[in-house]
Design goal:
heterodimer, A: alpha+beta, Gyrase A, domain 2, Elongation Factor Tu (Ef-tu), domain 3, 6-stranded mixed sheet, 6-stranded antiparallel β-barrel, 21 strands, about 20% helix, globular, B: 6-stranded antiparallel sheet
Chain lengths: ~375, ~130
Protein backbone atom coordinates (compact mmCIF):
# COMPACT_ATOMS: atom_id res chain seq x y z
CA UNK A 1 0.00 0.00 0.00
CA UNK A 2 1.53 3.27 -1.15
CA UNK A 3 1.93 5.99 1.47
CA UNK A 4 0.09 9.26 0.97
CA UNK A 5 0.76 12.74 2.31
CA UNK A 6 -2.00 14.83 3.92
CA UNK A 7 -2.26 16.66 0.57
CA UNK A 8 -3.07 13.58 -1.53
CA UNK A 9 -6.74 14.52 -2.00
CA UNK A 10 -5.76 18.05 -3.01
CA UNK A 11 -3.44 16.64 -5.71
CA UNK A 12 -6.17 14.42 -7.09
CA UNK A 13 -8.60 17.35 -7.14
CA UNK A 14 -6.03 19.33 -9.13
CA UNK A 15 -5.78 16.59 -11.77
CA UNK A 16 -2.31 15.40 -10.78
CA UNK A 17 -0.70 12.49 -12.56
CA UNK A 18 0.42 10.34 -9.63
CA UNK A 19 3.44 8.06 -9.56
CA UNK A 20 5.17 5.89 -7.03
CA UNK A 21 8.15 7.72 -5.54
CA UNK A 22 10.05 5.76 -2.89
CA UNK A 23 6.82 4.12 -1.76
CA UNK A 24 4.84 7.35 -1.77
CA UNK A 25 2.03 8.18 -4.20
CA UNK A 26 3.17 11.60 -5.40
CA UNK A 27 2.27 14.05 -8.19
CA UNK A 28 4.70 13.95 -11.14
CA UNK A 29 2.86 16.78 -12.86
CA UNK A 30 -0.54 18.47 -12.97
CA UNK A 31 -0.72 18.59 -16.77
CA UNK A 32 2.42 20.27 -18.13
CA UNK A 33 5.81 19.87 -16.49
CA UNK A 34 7.27 22.69 -18.59
CA UNK A 35 4.51 25.13 -17.64
CA UNK A 36 5.06 24.25 -13.97
CA UNK A 37 8.81 24.75 -14.33
CA UNK A 38 8.30 28.18 -15.86
CA UNK A 39 5.79 29.20 -13.18
CA UNK A 40 8.48 28.72 -10.53
CA UNK A 41 11.17 30.54 -12.53
CA UNK A 42 8.94 33.47 -13.43
CA UNK A 43 6.48 33.76 -10.59
CA UNK A 44 5.73 31.21 -7.87
CA UNK A 45 4.86 27.56 -7.37
CA UNK A 46 4.38 25.21 -4.43
CA UNK A 47 5.54 21.68 -3.80
CA UNK A 48 4.24 19.06 -1.43
CA UNK A 49 7.43 17.54 -0.06
CA UNK A 50 5.82 15.89 2.93
CA UNK A 51 7.25 12.56 1.82
CA UNK A 52 10.61 13.82 3.05
CA UNK A 53 11.30 13.13 6.71
CA UNK A 54 11.58 15.75 9.43
CA UNK A 55 13.83 14.58 12.27
CA UNK A 56 14.35 16.67 15.40
CA UNK A 57 17.58 16.12 17.30
CA UNK A 58 17.65 17.65 20.76
CA UNK A 59 19.49 17.54 24.06
CA UNK A 60 22.55 19.01 25.68
CA UNK A 61 24.83 16.93 23.42
CA UNK A 62 22.96 17.66 20.16
CA UNK A 63 25.61 20.03 18.81
CA UNK A 64 28.48 17.73 19.71
CA UNK A 65 26.65 14.75 18.18
CA UNK A 66 25.92 16.54 14.89
CA UNK A 67 29.55 17.66 14.64
CA UNK A 68 30.43 13.96 14.65
CA UNK A 69 27.54 12.77 12.45
CA UNK A 70 27.73 15.32 9.60
CA UNK A 71 30.55 16.17 7.18
CA UNK A 72 29.80 19.88 7.29
CA UNK A 73 30.29 21.53 10.67
CA UNK A 74 27.24 22.68 12.64
CA UNK A 75 29.60 24.96 14.57
CA UNK A 76 29.11 27.24 11.54
CA UNK A 77 25.49 27.68 12.64
CA UNK A 78 25.98 28.14 16.37
CA UNK A 79 23.62 31.11 16.24
CA UNK A 80 20.14 29.63 16.40
CA UNK A 81 18.12 30.53 13.31
CA UNK A 82 20.64 29.40 10.74
CA UNK A 83 20.71 26.43 8.37
CA UNK A 84 23.42 24.38 6.69
CA UNK A 85 23.56 21.98 3.73
CA UNK A 86 25.60 18.86 4.44
CA UNK A 87 26.25 15.23 3.60
CA UNK A 88 26.00 12.40 6.11
CA UNK A 89 28.77 9.91 5.34
CA UNK A 90 29.58 6.31 6.10
CA UNK A 91 33.03 5.38 7.42
CA UNK A 92 34.27 4.90 3.82
CA UNK A 93 33.36 8.49 3.03
CA UNK A 94 30.39 7.43 0.88
CA UNK A 95 27.24 9.54 1.05
CA UNK A 96 24.42 7.98 3.10
CA UNK A 97 22.26 11.03 2.42
CA UNK A 98 22.39 14.77 1.87
CA UNK A 99 20.29 17.03 4.06
CA UNK A 100 19.68 20.49 5.45
CA UNK A 101 20.13 20.96 9.19
CA UNK A 102 18.24 23.85 10.78
CA UNK A 103 19.35 25.19 14.16
CA UNK A 104 16.00 26.01 15.75
CA UNK A 105 17.00 26.84 19.33
CA UNK A 106 19.95 26.27 21.64
CA UNK A 107 19.67 22.49 22.04
CA UNK A 108 17.28 21.75 19.18
CA UNK A 109 18.23 20.98 15.58
CA UNK A 110 15.87 19.90 12.81
CA UNK A 111 17.06 17.92 9.81
CA UNK A 112 15.08 17.11 6.66
CA UNK A 113 16.16 13.93 4.88
CA UNK A 114 15.20 12.21 1.63
CA UNK A 115 12.12 10.00 1.43
CA UNK A 116 13.92 7.07 -0.20
CA UNK A 117 16.57 6.96 2.51
CA UNK A 118 14.48 7.74 5.60
CA UNK A 119 14.58 4.28 7.23
CA UNK A 120 18.27 3.81 6.49
CA UNK A 121 19.08 7.29 7.78
CA UNK A 122 17.16 6.82 11.02
CA UNK A 123 18.87 3.49 11.72
CA UNK A 124 22.27 5.04 11.04
CA UNK A 125 21.62 8.16 13.13
CA UNK A 126 20.42 6.05 16.07
CA UNK A 127 23.43 3.75 15.83
CA UNK A 128 25.79 6.72 15.86
CA UNK A 129 23.94 8.40 18.75
CA UNK A 130 24.44 5.61 21.27
CA UNK A 131 27.16 7.42 23.19
CA UNK A 132 25.49 10.83 23.10
CA UNK A 133 22.81 12.24 25.34
CA UNK A 134 20.38 13.20 22.56
CA UNK A 135 16.76 12.53 21.67
CA UNK A 136 15.94 11.62 18.07
CA UNK A 137 12.37 12.29 17.06
CA UNK A 138 11.04 11.38 13.60
CA UNK A 139 8.27 13.94 13.20
CA UNK A 140 5.72 11.94 11.26
CA UNK A 141 3.16 14.43 12.53
CA UNK A 142 4.65 17.16 10.31
CA UNK A 143 4.11 18.11 6.66
CA UNK A 144 6.43 20.15 4.41
CA UNK A 145 5.36 22.67 1.78
CA UNK A 146 7.99 24.45 -0.32
CA UNK A 147 6.89 27.76 -1.88
CA UNK A 148 9.45 28.78 -4.49
CA UNK A 149 9.95 31.49 -7.07
CA UNK A 150 10.42 35.25 -7.11
CA UNK A 151 7.04 35.72 -5.42
CA UNK A 152 7.47 32.71 -3.13
CA UNK A 153 8.34 34.41 0.13
CA UNK A 154 5.59 37.00 -0.07
CA UNK A 155 2.97 34.37 -0.84
CA UNK A 156 4.08 31.97 1.88
CA UNK A 157 4.42 34.71 4.49
CA UNK A 158 0.71 35.48 4.20
CA UNK A 159 -0.02 32.15 5.86
CA UNK A 160 1.73 33.18 9.06
CA UNK A 161 0.52 35.26 11.99
CA UNK A 162 1.92 38.76 12.33
CA UNK A 163 4.99 38.16 14.52
CA UNK A 164 5.99 34.99 12.67
CA UNK A 165 5.48 36.71 9.32
CA UNK A 166 7.75 39.58 10.26
CA UNK A 167 10.44 37.17 11.44
CA UNK A 168 10.13 35.11 8.25
CA UNK A 169 10.35 38.11 5.92
CA UNK A 170 13.57 39.23 7.60
CA UNK A 171 15.34 35.92 7.02
CA UNK A 172 18.45 35.91 4.87
CA UNK A 173 19.18 32.88 2.65
CA UNK A 174 19.81 29.77 4.74
CA UNK A 175 18.19 31.21 7.84
CA UNK A 176 15.20 29.79 9.66
CA UNK A 177 12.42 31.17 11.88
CA UNK A 178 10.50 29.01 14.31
CA UNK A 179 7.26 29.34 16.25
CA UNK A 180 5.45 26.63 18.20
CA UNK A 181 7.19 23.79 16.41
CA UNK A 182 6.53 25.24 12.97
CA UNK A 183 9.63 26.29 11.05
CA UNK A 184 10.10 28.49 8.01
CA UNK A 185 13.45 28.21 6.26
CA UNK A 186 14.65 30.44 3.43
CA UNK A 187 15.87 27.37 1.61
CA UNK A 188 14.78 25.32 -1.37
CA UNK A 189 15.71 23.02 -4.23
CA UNK A 190 14.96 25.13 -7.29
CA UNK A 191 17.62 27.86 -7.60
CA UNK A 192 14.93 30.43 -6.81
CA UNK A 193 14.16 32.38 -3.69
CA UNK A 194 11.47 30.96 -1.44
CA UNK A 195 10.51 29.29 1.80
CA UNK A 196 10.24 25.73 3.00
CA UNK A 197 7.51 25.45 5.63
CA UNK A 198 7.40 22.63 8.15
CA UNK A 199 4.01 22.57 9.80
CA UNK A 200 1.69 20.14 11.62
CA UNK A 201 0.15 17.67 9.16
CA UNK A 202 -3.39 18.71 10.14
CA UNK A 203 -2.65 22.29 9.02
CA UNK A 204 -1.25 21.30 5.63
CA UNK A 205 -4.52 21.18 3.68
CA UNK A 206 -5.66 24.60 4.90
CA UNK A 207 -2.27 26.13 4.09
CA UNK A 208 -2.20 24.51 0.64
CA UNK A 209 -5.74 25.64 -0.22
CA UNK A 210 -5.01 29.13 0.99
CA UNK A 211 -1.95 29.34 -1.29
CA UNK A 212 -4.01 27.84 -4.11
CA UNK A 213 -6.64 30.57 -3.62
CA UNK A 214 -3.91 33.19 -3.94
CA UNK A 215 -3.05 31.74 -7.35
CA UNK A 216 0.03 29.72 -6.38
CA UNK A 217 0.39 26.85 -8.87
CA UNK A 218 1.00 23.33 -7.56
CA UNK A 219 4.23 21.87 -8.98
CA UNK A 220 4.99 18.16 -9.43
CA UNK A 221 8.13 16.12 -8.97
CA UNK A 222 8.89 16.30 -12.71
CA UNK A 223 9.42 20.06 -12.65
CA UNK A 224 11.14 19.77 -9.28
CA UNK A 225 13.76 17.63 -11.01
CA UNK A 226 14.36 19.99 -13.96
CA UNK A 227 14.43 23.01 -11.63
CA UNK A 228 17.04 21.49 -9.34
CA UNK A 229 19.11 20.30 -12.31
CA UNK A 230 19.18 23.79 -13.85
CA UNK A 231 20.18 25.05 -10.40
CA UNK A 232 23.05 22.53 -10.34
CA UNK A 233 21.78 20.80 -7.21
CA UNK A 234 22.62 17.14 -6.75
CA UNK A 235 19.95 14.47 -6.45
CA UNK A 236 20.65 11.68 -3.98
CA UNK A 237 20.80 8.24 -5.60
CA UNK A 238 21.84 9.69 -8.97
CA UNK A 239 24.58 12.30 -8.51
CA UNK A 240 25.82 10.79 -5.26
CA UNK A 241 25.41 7.58 -3.32
CA UNK A 242 27.13 5.38 -0.75
CA UNK A 243 29.78 4.27 -3.24
CA UNK A 244 30.92 7.83 -3.98
CA UNK A 245 32.40 10.48 -1.75
CA UNK A 246 31.43 14.17 -1.79
CA UNK A 247 34.86 14.86 -3.33
CA UNK A 248 33.81 12.98 -6.48
CA UNK A 249 30.31 14.45 -6.47
CA UNK A 250 30.94 18.18 -6.71
CA UNK A 251 30.39 18.54 -2.97
CA UNK A 252 33.90 19.11 -1.61
CA UNK A 253 32.70 22.59 -0.57
CA UNK A 254 30.29 21.00 1.91
CA UNK A 255 32.98 19.05 3.77
CA UNK A 256 34.48 21.00 6.67
CA UNK A 257 38.04 19.69 7.09
CA UNK A 258 38.74 22.62 9.40
CA UNK A 259 39.08 22.72 12.33
CA UNK A 260 41.57 19.83 12.16
CA UNK A 261 40.64 18.59 15.60
CA UNK A 262 37.01 17.89 14.71
CA UNK A 263 36.60 14.24 13.82
CA UNK A 264 33.51 13.18 11.88
CA UNK A 265 32.24 9.99 10.31
CA UNK A 266 34.15 9.45 7.06
CA UNK A 267 36.89 11.99 7.77
CA UNK A 268 39.78 9.49 7.72
CA UNK A 269 38.59 8.01 4.42
CA UNK A 270 38.24 11.44 2.79
CA UNK A 271 41.69 12.53 3.96
CA UNK A 272 43.17 9.36 2.57
CA UNK A 273 41.42 9.92 -0.77
CA UNK A 274 42.54 13.53 -0.88
CA UNK A 275 46.16 12.56 -0.28
CA UNK A 276 45.97 9.83 -2.92
CA UNK A 277 44.24 12.07 -5.44
CA UNK A 278 40.63 12.01 -6.55
CA UNK A 279 40.14 10.26 -9.93
CA UNK A 280 36.76 11.59 -10.98
CA UNK A 281 34.78 14.79 -10.76
CA UNK A 282 31.23 15.92 -11.36
CA UNK A 283 30.86 18.44 -14.20
CA UNK A 284 28.06 20.28 -15.92
CA UNK A 285 27.35 19.48 -19.59
CA UNK A 286 25.45 21.38 -22.23
CA UNK A 287 24.45 19.47 -25.37
CA UNK A 288 25.45 21.37 -28.51
CA UNK A 289 22.70 20.03 -30.75
CA UNK A 290 19.20 18.61 -30.43
CA UNK A 291 18.26 15.65 -28.25
CA UNK A 292 18.15 15.00 -24.53
CA UNK A 293 20.92 13.61 -22.32
CA UNK A 294 19.58 11.30 -19.63
CA UNK A 295 20.65 9.41 -16.50
CA UNK A 296 23.31 6.81 -17.42
CA UNK A 297 24.08 8.24 -20.87
CA UNK A 298 27.71 7.40 -21.77
CA UNK A 299 30.29 10.23 -22.05
CA UNK A 300 33.68 10.04 -23.79
CA UNK A 301 36.50 12.48 -24.53
CA UNK A 302 35.96 14.42 -27.77
CA UNK A 303 39.03 12.88 -29.44
CA UNK A 304 38.18 9.33 -28.33
CA UNK A 305 36.66 6.49 -30.33
CA UNK A 306 35.79 4.10 -27.48
CA UNK A 307 32.54 2.16 -27.66
CA UNK A 308 29.56 3.14 -25.52
CA UNK A 309 30.10 0.33 -22.97
CA UNK A 310 33.73 1.33 -22.37
CA UNK A 311 33.17 5.05 -22.01
CA UNK A 312 34.91 6.52 -18.97
CA UNK A 313 32.30 9.13 -18.21
CA UNK A 314 28.61 8.85 -17.38
CA UNK A 315 25.68 11.21 -17.03
CA UNK A 316 24.36 11.10 -13.48
CA UNK A 317 21.39 13.42 -14.14
CA UNK A 318 20.31 14.68 -17.52
CA UNK A 319 17.21 16.32 -18.89
CA UNK A 320 15.80 19.03 -21.05
CA UNK A 321 16.25 22.46 -19.46
CA UNK A 322 13.07 24.49 -20.10
CA UNK A 323 14.77 27.79 -19.20
CA UNK A 324 17.57 27.17 -21.73
CA UNK A 325 15.57 25.25 -24.38
CA UNK A 326 18.31 22.64 -24.63
CA UNK A 327 19.59 19.59 -22.82
CA UNK A 328 21.84 19.87 -19.77
CA UNK A 329 23.35 17.28 -17.47
CA UNK A 330 25.58 16.52 -14.55
CA UNK A 331 28.21 13.92 -15.46
CA UNK A 332 30.94 12.05 -13.60
CA UNK A 333 34.14 12.11 -15.69
CA UNK A 334 37.92 11.73 -15.19
CA UNK A 335 39.37 14.78 -13.38
CA UNK A 336 41.56 15.87 -16.29
CA UNK A 337 38.70 16.26 -18.79
CA UNK A 338 38.05 19.84 -19.91
CA UNK A 339 35.95 21.62 -22.53
CA UNK A 340 34.61 19.23 -25.15
CA UNK A 341 33.19 15.73 -24.81
CA UNK A 342 30.81 13.45 -26.69
CA UNK A 343 27.67 11.83 -25.35
CA UNK A 344 25.99 8.73 -26.75
CA UNK A 345 22.35 9.47 -27.57
CA UNK A 346 20.37 6.60 -29.04
CA UNK A 347 23.53 5.00 -30.42
CA UNK A 348 25.03 8.18 -31.93
CA UNK A 349 27.87 10.26 -30.45
CA UNK A 350 26.93 13.94 -30.16
CA UNK A 351 29.11 16.89 -29.09
CA UNK A 352 28.64 18.41 -25.64
CA UNK A 353 30.53 21.04 -23.70
CA UNK A 354 31.75 21.01 -20.10
CA UNK A 355 30.49 24.09 -18.25
CA UNK A 356 30.49 25.46 -14.75
CA UNK A 357 27.16 25.06 -13.00
CA UNK A 358 24.60 26.22 -11.81
CA UNK A 359 23.16 26.53 -15.28
CA UNK A 360 20.40 28.88 -14.10
CA UNK A 361 20.24 31.14 -11.06
CA UNK A 362 17.29 33.33 -10.04
CA UNK A 363 15.60 32.86 -13.39
CA UNK A 364 18.65 33.77 -15.50
CA UNK A 365 20.85 31.58 -17.67
CA UNK A 366 24.51 31.45 -16.64
CA UNK A 367 25.57 29.57 -19.78
CA UNK A 368 27.06 31.25 -22.85
CA UNK A 369 25.41 30.35 -26.15
CA UNK B 1 -9.96 9.85 -20.83
CA UNK B 2 -8.09 10.38 -24.03
CA UNK B 3 -9.77 11.26 -27.29
CA UNK B 4 -10.04 8.65 -30.10
CA UNK B 5 -11.70 10.17 -33.22
CA UNK B 6 -13.95 7.66 -34.98
CA UNK B 7 -12.97 8.61 -38.53
CA UNK B 8 -9.27 7.73 -38.22
CA UNK B 9 -7.31 4.47 -38.41
CA UNK B 10 -4.74 3.46 -35.81
CA UNK B 11 -1.75 1.24 -35.03
CA UNK B 12 -1.09 -0.59 -31.80
CA UNK B 13 2.03 1.61 -31.44
CA UNK B 14 -0.22 4.69 -31.07
CA UNK B 15 0.04 6.32 -34.48
CA UNK B 16 -3.14 7.62 -36.12
CA UNK B 17 -3.65 7.52 -39.89
CA UNK B 18 -5.98 9.69 -41.92
CA UNK B 19 -6.31 8.11 -45.38
CA UNK B 20 -7.66 10.40 -48.07
CA UNK B 21 -8.84 7.56 -50.33
CA UNK B 22 -6.50 8.71 -53.05
CA UNK B 23 -3.17 7.08 -52.18
CA UNK B 24 -1.91 9.50 -49.51
CA UNK B 25 -2.35 9.52 -45.78
CA UNK B 26 -1.49 11.83 -42.88
CA UNK B 27 0.18 10.32 -39.79
CA UNK B 28 0.44 11.56 -36.22
CA UNK B 29 0.47 10.25 -32.67
CA UNK B 30 -2.66 9.82 -30.63
CA UNK B 31 -3.90 11.89 -27.73
CA UNK B 32 -3.14 8.96 -25.45
CA UNK B 33 0.45 8.81 -26.76
CA UNK B 34 1.13 12.52 -26.30
CA UNK B 35 -0.38 12.47 -22.85
CA UNK B 36 1.75 9.49 -21.78
CA UNK B 37 4.92 11.09 -23.14
CA UNK B 38 4.33 14.47 -21.54
CA UNK B 39 5.63 17.78 -22.90
CA UNK B 40 7.44 17.19 -26.22
CA UNK B 41 10.69 19.08 -26.66
CA UNK B 42 12.07 17.70 -29.93
CA UNK B 43 10.58 16.02 -32.99
CA UNK B 44 12.89 14.40 -35.52
CA UNK B 45 11.22 13.70 -38.87
CA UNK B 46 12.34 11.80 -41.98
CA UNK B 47 13.13 13.58 -45.23
CA UNK B 48 10.47 13.82 -47.91
CA UNK B 49 11.12 11.18 -50.54
CA UNK B 50 12.33 8.52 -48.06
CA UNK B 51 11.03 5.04 -48.90
CA UNK B 52 9.64 3.32 -45.83
CA UNK B 53 8.26 -0.10 -44.90
CA UNK B 54 5.39 -0.71 -42.48
CA UNK B 55 6.84 -0.96 -38.97
CA UNK B 56 10.08 0.92 -39.77
CA UNK B 57 11.17 3.47 -37.15
CA UNK B 58 11.00 6.66 -39.21
CA UNK B 59 10.73 9.47 -36.66
CA UNK B 60 11.49 10.23 -33.04
CA UNK B 61 9.47 12.26 -30.60
CA UNK B 62 11.30 13.26 -27.45
CA UNK B 63 9.65 14.58 -24.32
CA UNK B 64 11.05 15.86 -21.06
CA UNK B 65 10.65 12.29 -19.80
CA UNK B 66 11.64 9.98 -22.68
CA UNK B 67 12.39 9.50 -26.37
CA UNK B 68 10.03 7.38 -28.41
CA UNK B 69 10.22 5.95 -31.94
CA UNK B 70 7.44 6.58 -34.42
CA UNK B 71 6.76 3.78 -36.90
CA UNK B 72 5.61 3.96 -40.50
CA UNK B 73 2.10 2.51 -40.45
CA UNK B 74 2.23 1.29 -44.06
CA UNK B 75 4.65 0.69 -46.93
CA UNK B 76 5.27 3.76 -49.07
CA UNK B 77 7.17 6.99 -49.40
CA UNK B 78 7.30 10.09 -47.20
CA UNK B 79 5.59 12.87 -49.15
CA UNK B 80 5.68 15.82 -46.74
CA UNK B 81 6.68 16.57 -43.17
CA UNK B 82 5.21 19.02 -40.67
CA UNK B 83 8.01 21.58 -40.57
CA UNK B 84 6.29 23.63 -37.86
CA UNK B 85 7.28 20.95 -35.35
CA UNK B 86 10.96 21.83 -35.58
CA UNK B 87 10.33 25.03 -33.63
CA UNK B 88 7.01 24.16 -32.02
CA UNK B 89 7.01 20.51 -30.88
CA UNK B 90 4.35 21.44 -28.32
CA UNK B 91 1.79 21.44 -31.16
CA UNK B 92 1.74 17.66 -30.82
CA UNK B 93 0.63 18.00 -27.19
CA UNK B 94 -1.84 20.78 -27.89
CA UNK B 95 -3.49 19.38 -31.00
CA UNK B 96 -2.35 15.81 -31.68
CA UNK B 97 -4.99 15.11 -34.37
CA UNK B 98 -4.70 18.50 -36.08
CA UNK B 99 -1.80 20.98 -36.08
CA UNK B 100 0.41 18.35 -34.47
CA UNK B 101 0.43 15.92 -37.43
CA UNK B 102 3.90 14.46 -38.16
CA UNK B 103 4.12 13.51 -41.84
CA UNK B 104 2.16 12.60 -44.97
CA UNK B 105 3.02 9.55 -47.02
CA UNK B 106 2.16 8.03 -50.39
CA UNK B 107 0.89 4.53 -49.73
CA UNK B 108 2.18 1.69 -51.97
CA UNK B 109 -0.83 -0.54 -51.55
CA UNK B 110 -4.13 1.24 -50.81
CA UNK B 111 -5.71 -2.08 -49.74
CA UNK B 112 -3.25 -2.32 -46.85
CA UNK B 113 -5.14 0.53 -45.13
CA UNK B 114 -7.85 -2.01 -44.37
CA UNK B 115 -5.48 -3.87 -42.06
CA UNK B 116 -5.09 -0.90 -39.69
CA UNK B 117 -7.08 -0.75 -36.45
CA UNK B 118 -10.36 1.09 -36.32
CA UNK B 119 -11.22 3.46 -33.46
CA UNK B 120 -13.03 0.79 -31.41
CA UNK B 121 -10.13 -1.65 -31.61
CA UNK B 122 -7.64 1.07 -30.69
CA UNK B 123 -9.75 2.20 -27.75
CA UNK B 124 -9.55 -1.36 -26.46
CA UNK B 125 -5.75 -1.19 -26.55
CA UNK B 126 -5.70 2.10 -24.69
CA UNK B 127 -8.06 0.81 -22.02
CA UNK B 128 -5.80 -2.19 -21.49
CA UNK B 129 -2.69 -0.02 -21.13
CA UNK B 130 -4.39 2.38 -18.78
CA UNK B 131 -5.13 -0.41 -16.26
Amino acid sequence: MAKRTPLYEAHVADGAKLVDFAGWEMPIDYGSQIAEHKAVRESVGMFDVSHMAVVDISGAAAREFLRWLLANDVAKIDDAGRALYTCMLNTRGGVIDDLIVYHLSSDLYRIVVNAATTEKDLAWIKSQARDYDVAIDHRQDMAIIAVQGPRGRDMAAELLDEAFRQAALQLKPFQVAVENDRSVGRTGYTGEDGFELVLPAEEAVTAWKSLRDKGVAPIGLGARDTLRLEAGLNLYGQDMDEERTPLESGLAWTVAFKPEERDFVGRAALEHLRAEGVGQKLVGLVLEGRGVMRHETAVRAADSDVEEEHAEGEITSGSYAPTLSRSIALARVPVDWEDSVEVCLRGKWQPARIVRYPFVRNGKSRIDD
Amino acid sequence: MSEVPKDLSYTKTHEWIDYDGDGTCTVGITDYAQSSLGDLVFVELPEAGTKVGAGDAVAVVESVKAASDIYAPLDGEIAEINEQLEDSPELVNEDPFGEGWLFKMNVSDPDSVEKLLDADAYEGIVEEEED
